Amino acid sequence: MSLFVEALQTDTLPQSPWLRTLARCLLKSRNSAAPSRLSKPLSLLTCTSFLLIAGFATSAQSQTSPSSVAGQPGTALPASADLEGGRRLAPLCDLIAQRVAYMEQVSKSKWNTKSSIEDPEREQKILADVAVKARELGLSPQWVQHFFRLQMEASKQVQYQLFAEWHETSQAQFPEVLDLKTAIRPRLDSLDDKILAAMKANWSTLSLRGANQQLQGCEVPTKFPKAMAFALTPLTDRSSETTGIAPASTRAKP
Q: Which single residue of 16, 157, 169, 177 could bond 227 by disulfide (Cβ 3.0 to 4.6 Å)?
C-alpha cells in the first residue's frame, strides 16, 4: 500500500480514475492522526468498498439511461451506421443547399426593387405554415420551426453578404430577374414542402443520438459555405434527438 500511495505522490500512477481515487483515499487515511493497528486494514476495506459501490452505481445508471433505450430518441448509433446514415441524409442536405443557393435570386430581386432584406411578416407566415404541415406529417412542430428559423437566418446571411458586395461595386440593376412574389416565393414554398417530406423520410435517422456525426453526406458544393454551415445547424445541434416525437409512420400504434 505504501508504494501505491507514493506512486500517487510522485505522479507515476497510471491515469486510471479508479486507481487514483483509491490511492487518495488511502493517502488520507494514512495521514490521519494516530492511526491504530486496526485502522489500516479498515481504511483499505473502506476505500475499496467505496469504489465497488460507486462502480455498481455507475454501471446501473448507464444501463437505465434513457439514451440507451433502443428505438427511442437519443438512442446511440453504431459506428457502422455512420456511412449509411450519411447517405440517407444526403437528399435532405441537397435540398437545404438548393434553398441556400436560391437566395441569390431572392437577393437580386430585392436589389432591383430596393426591398428590405428583413421581412418579419413573411417569416411568421412561413413558421405558421410549416408548423401546420409538421403536425400533418407527424413531425415535431417545435423542431420544424427551429429548423426553418435557422434556414431563414442562413438566407438573410446570403442576402446581407451579396448586398455588401454589390454596394462595394456599385452594382446596377440585374436584367431578367424573377419576380419575388409571383415566381420566387412559390418555388421556395415548393422546396420547403420537399424538405418536410425528406425530414419525415429520415426522421428515424435524425432522431438518433450521433446523427450529427453522419453529415459527411452533406458536403454539398456551395458558393455560400458560411450560410450553408448555418443552415445545417439544426442537424448538428442535437435538437432533433430530444424532441421525443417521431413521424406517425414510425410511432407505435396503441
A: 157
